[in-house]
Amino acid sequence: MKLARFALRDETTERLGIVMDADGRVRLLDVAALPGDSASRPLPGTMMQAIQAGQAGLSALESARDYAARHADPAWFHGGDDVQWLTPVPPRSCIAAGRNFGAHRLESIRGNPQAGAGFQSDFPTGFIKLGRNLVGHKAEVKRPDDVEQMDYEAEVAVVVGQPLLNATRDQARQAIFGYTIMNDLSAREWQFAEMRNLLVMMGKNFPGFGPLGPCILTADEVPDPTALRLWLKVNGELRQQSDCSDLIFQFDELVAFWSRVGLESGDIISSGTPEGVAVHRKPDPRPFFLKPGDIVHAGVDQIGVLETRII
């Protein structure tokens, strides 16, 4: 099942939607518009309520989805182009893995051989994306005035379904609520300047530098996360393409590792990105950096497509 947060045009109230794909069109089933007898138990009203309700909440939403498919009242649905897509979860902690695809790690070493000598593979590495800088599907993101090297990074992100502390891999696997898409936008000149001081913060956290969405695909529909295939296009040109079999640390390992700092329901942990980022393009990366007017599509085949416009 695919779940999304959205708001109607000119409104700010969060609505919980079930994404219904049909004939190439995306429709959102507005859970709040359904009659009371559409499910066997009370329906969650928000995404966080759905996450915290666990299997009981998902079962109620599945009943509602099946009811809506049978009765199909047009008043219950909204077109994907007629709503404001919100981030799949409200602002939460977001930990982004670094250099976690094998091919991307190799291109990073080739691009900076001196840094490659210090790479380690004993445990995951990562950085924080500020929750307030996460934006939803079809967001417009401004390139900062002092940034010329604005880069893209397609990633798969997991949404944590329950509080975790010092979890095992099995506990972490059971705690994954679902999967969504992230575009880890980066200001490379800031990032690399920070990395000389062994830090990464500003280069990953300008306003809007965390496009996320459009929806969450629940974990029960992803029996093999290594098969998740992701890709990214800029203005229709394919820039990245891989699948999660190339991950160095799989999702359950990432969740278990980062549970050492404590995780809460709705927290986000992203996979890292595959090869093909602009900064490592040869011989000259400059034509590949994002510019105002660019349209970026980051996709995961089973989940959907996350669109971002650079202004």
Describe the structure.
The chain has 311 residues and is an alpha+beta fold. It folds into two domains: 84 residues, no CATH class; 217 residues, Fumarylacetoacetate hydrolase, domain 2. It contains six helices and 19 strands. The strands form three sheets. Strands 1, 2, 3, 4, 5, 6, 7, 8, 11, 12, 14 and 17 form a twelve-stranded mixed β-sheet that branches. A hairpin with a 2-residue loop joins strand 2 and strand 3. The longest helix is centred in the first third of the chain and has 25 residues. The chain is globular, with a radius of gyration of 19 Å. It starts with a strand and ends with a strand. The model has no long low-confidence stretch (mean pLDDT 92).
**Radius of gyration from the CA trace?**
19 Å
Largest sheet: 12 strands, mixed
Q: List the helices and strands in order.
A: EEEHEEEHHEEEEEHEEHEEEHEEE
CATH superfamily (homologous) name of the largest domain: Fumarylacetoacetase-like, C-terminal domain
SS summary, helix count: 6
Q: How far apart lie the N and C ends?
A: 33 Å
The outline comes out as globular
The CATH topology of the largest domain turns out to be: Fumarylacetoacetate hydrolase, domain 2
Low-pLDDT stretches: none
